[in-house]
């Protein structure tokens, strides 16, 4: 170290000045920090924090949506059980006819024709992995508009699921001209739970 100082002391003033400039430049570019690197670190950390905050908000939204979906699924399951409870295990055309006659008892529509009908969809209807069958009757009634309206309202309010299809309404005509009564033709369909008898035989269960 002393030898270095001796050599420096033997240099001229101009060379010492040049050496000072060189050392200053080396220090400036190698060791001097005017705060830019610190600012860059702060900006980098700020950006990372914003990214983490955004991810946190996205995660919270996903968790909230998951909770809502679970509630929706639970509500749908309850609704399904409510609907299923209204569908009888067994329903024959005689049972459906009895329901319709009971509905019409206090309304007094005149039955002109009744016969076994074809469901609107001849195939069994899938319901959440299970099957629902249909039983249909074709009816022709006569009565006034109020009677027909009451009849349809009563059908809609039944606990058992009943559909009204192929709705046709027209004025009745007699030899004396148009009558006050209307002719109402429709297909009334009842639903029942489908029982796979072949599966029951395979499992040894009674049909």
Description of the molecule:
It is a single chain. With 207 residues, the chain is an alpha+beta fold. The chain has a domain at 93-199: Alpha-Beta Plaits (2-Layer Sandwich), CATH 3.30.70. The protein has helices spanning 2-9, 13-30, 36-85, 93-104, 145-156, 197-203, and strands at 110-116, 125-127, 130-143, 162-174, 177-193. Strands 1, 2, 3, 4 and 5 form a 5-stranded antiparallel β-sheet that branches. A hairpin with a 2-residue loop joins strand 4 (162-174) and strand 5 (177-193). The protein is rod-shaped.
How would a textbook summarize the main sheet? 5 strands, antiparallel
The rough form would be described as rod-shaped
| Main CATH class of the domain at 93-199 | Alpha Beta
Radius of gyration: 44 Å
Q: What is the element string, with H for helices and E for strands? A: HHHHEEEHEEH
- In percent, how helical is the residue content? 40-55%
Number of strands: 5
Distance between the termini: 108 Å
How many individual helices? Answer: 6
What would the average pLDDT be, to the nearest integer? 77
CATH topology name of the domain at 93-199, in short, is Alpha-Beta Plaits
């Amino acid at each position: 170290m002393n030898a270095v100082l001796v050599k420096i002391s033997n240099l001229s003033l101009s060379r010492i000045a040049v050496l000072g400039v060189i050392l200053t430049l080396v220090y400036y570019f190698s060791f001097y920090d005017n705060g830019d690197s610190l600012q860059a670190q702060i900006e980098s950390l700020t950006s990372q924090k914003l990214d983490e905050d955004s991810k946190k908000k996205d995660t919270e939204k996903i968790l909230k949506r998951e909770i809502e979906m679970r509630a929706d699924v639970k509500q749908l399951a309850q609704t399904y059980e409510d609907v299923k409870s209204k569908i009888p295990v067994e329903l024959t055309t005689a049972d459906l006819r009895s329901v319709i006659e009971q509905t019409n008892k206090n309304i007094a529509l005149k039955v002109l024709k009744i016969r076994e009908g074809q469901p609107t969809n001849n195939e069994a209807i899938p319901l959440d992995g299970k099957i629902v069958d249909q039983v249909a009757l074709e009816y022709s009634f006569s009565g006034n508009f109020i009677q027909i309206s009451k009849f349809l309202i009563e059908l809609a309010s039944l606990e058992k699921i009943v559909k009204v299809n192929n709705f046709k309404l027209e004025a009745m005509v007699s030899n004396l001209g148009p009558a006050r009564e209307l002719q109402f033709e429709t297909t009334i369909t009842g639903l029942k739970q489908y029982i796979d008898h072949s599966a029951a035989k395979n499992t040894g269960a009674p049909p």
